[in-house]
Amino acid sequence: MQLLDIERQPDVTAADGVGLPVSGAARRVFVETYGCQMNVSDTELMMGVLKEAGFRRALRVEDADVVLLNTCAIRERAEERVVGRLSQLSSVKRMRPDLVLGVSGCMAKHLAEKLLNQLPYVDLVVGPDSYRRLPELIGEAAGNPALDVRLDRHEDYLDLDPVRQEGTNAWITIMRGCDKFCTFCIVPYVRGRERSVPAGDLLRQVRIAAAEGFREVTLLGQTVNSYHDGETDFADLLKMVAHVEGIRRIRFTSPHPSDFSDKLIDTMAEESKVCRFIHLPVQSGSDRVLKAMERIYSSGRYLDLVDRLRSALPGLCLSTDVIVGFPGEEDSDFESTMALMRHVRYDSAFMFKYSPRKGTVAFREIPDTVPEAEKTRRLQTVIAQQTKISGEINRGYVGHLQEVLVEGDARRGKGQAVGKSDGFKTVVFPKNGVRTNTFVDIRITGATSHTLIGRQEH
Length: 458
Ligand code: SF4
Description:
By secondary structure, this protein is of the alpha/beta class.
């Protein structure tokens, strides 16, 4: 679950045709993306493959010849949403039998047989290592359901150019798969073993993104800081990317706490383009539970890392992932998580109730002992504590200046714009003609636990 942890799984759902030319006589494709940033990046990759093969973009399901749901398998709820959406789309398919309806991504790998056997309106199931074959599989699906969910430990798609979604941030997938095998996580089984894209190819992608006008890049990987292409490690890569002209901000997600070297911390301190924000999944504050999760660090080592990061990177903002109700989690374990979160004082956190995922070690070997009602109570307790802490931290920004990359119109509040600070805070301010993808200085005048509010400083 390291969004691609794709430890972080905010419920991103993007529905679009990601930058392909619109309309025309060629077959038109519409993609909906579920799950983490890695899936958003994979959708851009799929669009690159489809564009090469002559497909064009549809802006609506109604205009599409092919509808793909690029899916996430991290949580059961994500899979349920996709199954519900497929059921909705089956009525479109009843009226237009020639419509190709496909499922790609992690859920395709996790539930391939179920999808084809139980949902007869699904024509195409394609796993994360088979996007190269999409045009061919779409062709085959016109007759019979087409399936390719093989894992390929050599597939890194390095020669393919993504069609990037419009926006202010370019996602660059620098490594795929995961070798950590946390006991609760399905990722290594649906995305395969870890492999890194050569640094030279990544730099080419970053330069293309800069030439396209992107000022911010986010380097993606399941355990992004374990990147190593044989010569270049993650710290080296950050340095190289920082030297690409035009790029002003570099983010990455998600690092694994056990792969945070001193060299990496020093590099972050030296390179001011690397944002002062880290999503650092902890999952639990109890050593007993961390061991059962096979997280390969203790709470003490994690806290030591937080100290080293904060002393090297003043003003660092931190977020995390937490699972409550892991099998065997006692009240005292939960209290340890609460205490660790009070100690670290994260800027924000993604907090979840444990739910067993078929195919994982925890599902097979560790009975789910914590009653659902108790999981819910613990989740509500931890959310309430974090909301209070986030609000306190954010109110500390009032009166201070933040450099904000403008993302566009705010969803709420007429005439308001929204953007992100270096520390990944969402900042809302009067639009007053500011342009998307520019940097503005915003004086913070108010704050909630999720948002900073301000006005432009001239
Ligand atoms: S196995 Fe562990 S490190 Fe790997 S993606 Fe899952 S949660 Fe992250």
